[in-house]
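Exercise 7 asks you to align residues with tokens for two separate proteins.
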Amino acid sequence: MGRLVDLGEASLEERRIGALPIVNAFMERLGLRGLLDGYVVAGPRASLAPSAPLLVLLQSLVVERAPVYKIAEWVAGRPEALLGPHPGEIAALNDDRLGRALDALFCADRASMLTALMTKAIEVFTISLDELHNDATTLHMQGEYASSVGDSSRAPRVRFGHAKERPDLAQLIYLLTVSSDGYVPITYRLADGNTSEDPTHIPTWESCCVLAGTTSFLYVRDAKLCNRSAMGHIDRNHGRFLCVMPATRAEVGEFRRFIAANTPAWTEVARRKGKRKDDPDKVFYATPAPSPSVEGYRICWSRSTTKELDDAAKRRRAIEAARVATEALCERLSGPRCRLKDEASVKAAATAAIDQAGASRWVRAEISTTTVVRHRQQRRGRPGPNTLYVRIEEQRYQVRAVVMDDVVRDDACFDACFDGCWPAMTSDKNLTEAELLFAMKRQPGVEGRHHVLKSVVGFVPVYLKSNERIDAFAFLGYVAVLVHALIERELRNAMRDATIAALPSLPREPGLQGADRSPGDRDLRAPVRSRAWVAGEVVASFHPTLSKLHRQVLDLLNVPATAYQAETVTTL
């Protein structure tokens, strides 16, 4: 019989569980603890195995991103039984041990560890590697980063490069390859911030060959793959590639002239309903190019009715934007503090404004000059009948956007037949035009995984001042995206097998829920908590109450509901 306890001095502590049981189940299927124990070697004075703090870091990345210096606070709000370290090791976690664990991870053979991890994932989850998509993104960093431990030449360096979003910040280049089967990450590379993407394709493709065990997969990339060395290397080694052909290639100009004088045999390959009820269907057409590329590769042209309307509207928007920009410049010239004092500088500013609007082909700037006369006293003082004045003539400029109607009319006739078209080049001779189109339409799936890394996982900003630790931390970020992708893929496949068309979204914020046909990463933030009365010791624990939706998701993922009862009910 238990003894009575006075709860007057007891406090109710809350432990956030969230998606930890689901994440732990997938991490266990990947064998992450054994992988880290086998490859990451602890230092001579380490009191904890490096896998303990690394698993906590990984859990925080997947479930709820916390800076390294706040990991102890993050751990304090979770049940100990669901965390990476063994019971009793939680109190030993601090930011120094986490930093040393990242140093040990950097010194480990992460290339072999990544190969072993992905081999296990491909085998356990039966991931198809017939079609792989690759893309790069930039990870912007703030502050100064200097090498501190290990061989500094091995760690990618934070440098300034060609950034589209924040050119004022240094960056790292993150290259990711995913499978079209659920967009599961297959491999990644972290490179210096000023690295060009052209030389990265060959080592990336070769690493994919090691994982796939063959060269027969289709390697899909955007226009950055369209260089002779990378395409030739893949083709010579009996590989297959598919990429978008950039508009600067001579073959694009040849097709523009061909389509202006001839009518290609467009074949309808796909049709989709419009976004709204009254919108017309989106129709996709395809046709082979009249001649191959200079390198001898096959070129397939596609056309979309939606893109056709967008291209035509883009010209109109550019012309209107140029007109608005010149009006703003004209208003600026009439101000008293305008620094454009001569015709050359005014013309340069007007040309730059039109170029920025993308309408330099159809709009030109017309500058008119007006002479304004004013008089000023020759000497300072109160004016009188004998005061002498100096005549001052000033030039005032006005800018007007002139639309070249003949060019617009000719381009409308010439480009109307080219609107909505884009070319793809491939070394595969057996895929149909429809299969090539669908493969290119799946390319944005890589950008979705970049979004998971930077926004959902919250990889940046990185509160680390060492290139080595950032490199090791990027490995954990990749594994976090992998866990996200596997959970999403398994849930979607289970919904398909169970003929479930949609699931209500798990609650993320008060009042935000609805039908979700494609459950995503934000659903991992479902608020599930446990509570316990504590009076020096745990007096009683209360397991969370799972809703019907929670249990349905757990059943689809083959995670037992008992995983949410990790804390043992104790009565004194």
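Second protein for Exercise 7:
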Amino acid sequence: MFELKAREGLARLGKFTHNNHTIITPNIAVVVNPNKQIIPPKELENEFGVDLIITNAYIIKNSKKPIKNLHEFYKFSGLIYTDSGTYQMYSKGEVGITNEETLRIQKELGSDIITPLDVFTLPSDSKLDALRKLIETNKRIKNSLTQNMVAPIQGGIHLDLRKKACKELSKINPLIYAIGGIVPLMNAYDFKRLTEIVLACKQNLPSNVPVHAFGAGHPIIFSLLALLGIDLFDSASYALFAREGRYLTEYGTKKINEMQFLPCNCKICASHTIKELQNDFSLLARHNLYVIMREIKLIREAIHEHKLFDLVSSRIRAHPSLYYAYKWLLEQAPFMDSDPVTKHSAFFWTGPLSDLRPELLRAKARLKELGFKKVPRPLKLMYPFGQSEGIKFNYSKKKYNDLETLRLLADYQLGKGAGKTLFPERTRIVYTRNRRINKAFLDNELLCVLRASDGHIILHKAGAMRIKKFLKKVEVNKEVAQFPKSGKSVFAKHVVKASPGIIPCMEVLVTCNNMPIAVGESLLNSKEMKEFKSGVAVQVREGL
């Protein structure tokens, strides 16, 4: 079960529950080699907060250690994910294991999440070879699908093949979708092509299943991939880099033998000298893992605070390839249906790329729709105009009285013409102590509250009924209609249909048999409301 709790861009702060374990996404599956446990899984769990590990069925098959049950062997209480051996096929050139054999081994080991033996596609593969590998991979997935299986997506660098794979696999119901064949691109710092592939996959996959980027394990790329909607990462980079004497940071990798200072305050760096890290790769591995886990947690909090765009803007300065990948991504404007219409935090303008963020694109489009060349002054109350730093808007000089202000805000937020319908001449306005517009009444009935934090009109029963034709609709089945009517939230599994164009944090009308029964705020977009089977779709404010 997967449900969304917060979001920004295409990123999802979510809860993924499987086999009685719940983890928060974005998350990383820390790679554990049964033969070389540099950091024991128990320590991963207790000291680093790891609740998801990934191990390899091919390595276990050839291990001299007898392993009957993964949870018992690793003494790990979180989720255990097993890889099939595909990466060994790529890195070593051959694998002595079949798809049937690897699946049998994973099941016998009691793996929580199992992976079929997909056919790794190289960036250098021709389109014909990539297609052949895609067909074989999809055949293996379909022939062996179980409730806890991952569906790897191949197709190489050919975006039409990636889309083809996604559309075919969208017809099944795997536990997780995993984008494969991308490690060589990350190793080559080809982040633009990586971004193109991930976006092509995300746009052609169902929204209600977590998406894993196979082999993505360097913190330099986490925030950008999270913004693209990647929910799960994995890598052995913490150990592999340590063996090579490489010190991980969020902005790149350093050679420990060339460093004079430790620019980190993790437990390892705070209690050991640089010489000790140079002489003990297990200490270096622990530092590397602290950095990885810290970045994952930072990304989660950034999504919660609606600050992930700001985090990405700072991280892309680490490498030109990251910068140009992010620039290309913004130019595609893929966030318009998923990025919330309003946010908890102010909009920070940090340079020309900020002009391509969905908040400003949406604002410009709405102003054009309303016929304004300059920004009307009342919009200083509303996000992003009044809740921004570093950007100057071109405001008009026209003055508005308070009723005109409310009407303009309604037209901007709810659609052209909504203002006069919602606020007739006899509207009574209530103010705060510092004379800010607070509430609007009609015939002693509360129409709406003007939220101080972002200037958004928060509709109540009387207001929603006046402008119901302007509001997007979320239809629920009659068996549950009593719950929204009494002010309880609408769950995604009860949504029968949703109007096109619903965006998170939008005012919506809940209906049953086309009759209004509640008003509230959307937490999912239209596509997600149709696809998700868990979590809240609409936070109901008031039954009608």
